Amino acid sequence: xxxxxxxxxxxxxxxxxxxxxxxxxxxxxxxxxxxxxxxxxxxxxxxxxxxxxxxxxxxxxxxxxxxxxxxxxxxxxxxxxxxxxxxxxxxxxxxxxxxxxxxxxxxxxxxxxxxxxxxxxxxxxxxxxxxxxxxxxxxxxxxxxxxxxxxxxxxxxxxxxxxxxxxxxxxxxxxxxxxxxxxxxxxxxxxxxxxxxxxxxxxxxxxxxxxxxxxxxxxxxxxxxxxxxxxxxxxxxxxxxxxxxxxxxxxxxxxxxxxxxxxxxxxxxxxxxxxx
Length: 276
What we know:
The protein has helices spanning 3-11, 25-31, 46-56, 76-83, 106-115, 124-147, 162-169, 198-201, 212-227, 237-240, 248-255, 264-270; strands spanning 68-72, 97-104, 151-155, 175-184. The protein is α+β, with helices and mostly antiparallel strands. It folds into three domains: 1-32, no CATH class; 33-189, NADH Oxidase (3-Layer(aba) Sandwich), CATH 3.40.109; 213-260, no CATH class. Strands 1-2-4-3 form a four-stranded antiparallel beta sheet. Helix 3 (46-56) crosses helix 6. The chain starts with a helix and ends in a 6-residue tail after the last helix.
């Protein structure tokens, strides 16, 4: 498939993007990204896995602080307990490889004490830097894994029970989970998810969402034509009823109409972060 066709598949409408760009394996892999939740039982070679970690940790790092740690969950009983933290993540118990990516501000604080220097940046930016670095490194791992044919799926829902997750991983102060990640050889092809049009997400010179509703309505229509959400698949029908216009925006705004992870800020403070 040409890059132009891959862009069309990703965004759900014909366009000219990619028509002059030469074939490229990296672009093919990124444009073809999809989330896999079904895996073969085949193990991943340990040398390959270590190579993927090496590629992942080659990602950019804020000020070269390298504030990321990843915890491989080798204990299958522990993996099962983490997967069972929410009803939405039970499938993760069957992932051949499961890991949790963490922001890690502990390392630099311990090193500052070791070197006899004050840690003078104990504020919100310390948390943000570690969280962003962890997300970048995790994405780098996903790109590397997909390049060799593996499938991945990030799992943020495990943070719904943040205290239980933190206890399972025995996380010390200044270390916090960002997301889990399931990795394995794909057993099924789930297809790609349509993304918002670039006209909505790419801005020039200034932020401009003056045409947001029209563009999202068009996106909703394209996505719903592909997904064909049935009435019994709609979210929170008991609260909002069955919608005749149930697209992405209706689904996600219904999702965010319910409070979730309201305890995360308190957990982050308990882990030692000052969010001032």
